[in-house]
Predict the structure.
Amino acid sequence: MGAQLRVYRQKIKSAQTTKKITRAMELISASRIQKAQARVAASEPYSTAITRAVSAVASYSNVAHVLTTEPERIDRAAIVIFTSDRGLAGAFNSQVLREAEELTELLKSQGKAVEYFLVGRKSVGYFNFRHRAFERSWIGGTDNPDFDTAKEIADAVLEAFLRDAADGGVDEIHIVYNRFVSRITQVPVVTRLLPLEVVESDEAPEASTKHEVFPLYEFEPDAETVLDGLLPVYIESRIYNAMLQSSAAKHAATQKAMKSASDNADKLITDYTRLANNARQSEITQQISEIVGGADALSSAK
Amino acid sequence: MASLNVSVVSADQQVWSGEATMVVARTVEGEIGILPGHEPMLAILAGGEVRVTLPGGEKITANADDGFLSVQANAVQVVASRAELV
């Protein structure tokens, strides 16, 4: 067998093996998307209940809360970046990190110092590689986020927010994560988590039918304490939601990336098969012409 | 008699929902019982049991901590980061 033919056959083999792996990963993430989506849906009653309660308190009491008041000067800001633990998900992690970098630029241009809270091994790797400092990180468990981690992140973020800026606290907190739109699209989302912007429903009760008018609630013990209890829970639920969205988006991104990898492998296999056939044919042609030439030489020598 | 529409919700799922005649929960100020027609209320829960009495007289008990209770127009929501039926 000719050397060239052997090389082509090797390449076909390796493309086939790669295809088997990418195909398996594609199927795995396809099944995981569904689970992740179901978890997003299952957590919905909780977040709607909390959002409703928070807006109810906010619209019927004029309680100024430390989490909702805009500080006069914002010197330090924190960004919470939600990436995944594993790669092989196309632009999933890079687009979140790019958004975070853009946000950093913006905040720095406003004269704010930026601190980072990182979720997911990929963002930690990104920061370590560039020798950049970050406040805290959480790795492991981004494929299947649990509420305890969300609580831990919320506690850390709130703690940093409530600390004085002079002691290394921050005055505002942004989150950057991938939102699951569909199996095809995942969009990076940048929102400011703290201070909270409470949309008061009494501003335009009739104008929008979406905002329901809340009844006059009785608060127990009082509006202030209720708000005190609710707001941290609200933050937790927002962070938990971001984690769930991010994990669903990660699985969708992996599926998409692995699908195109399998397609590419398919194309490689066809191309190399053609080339290998070509090489084999030319080898045969050469052998025939050698034989014919040899026979010719023998007969003409006689 | 009107009945209450109760749902018990935890962070990752809806634990239970259905009709009930009475809900008893522990708020930070003490136990509170809610019957149909209760005024709208928002209360912070103290950790402990939430007892729901069904129309048939059966009782359902759920453990809920770190959450709140909202009552509005005969809809009762028990919302806690961790809640489970006993």
Summary: The longest strand of chain B covers residues 59-72.
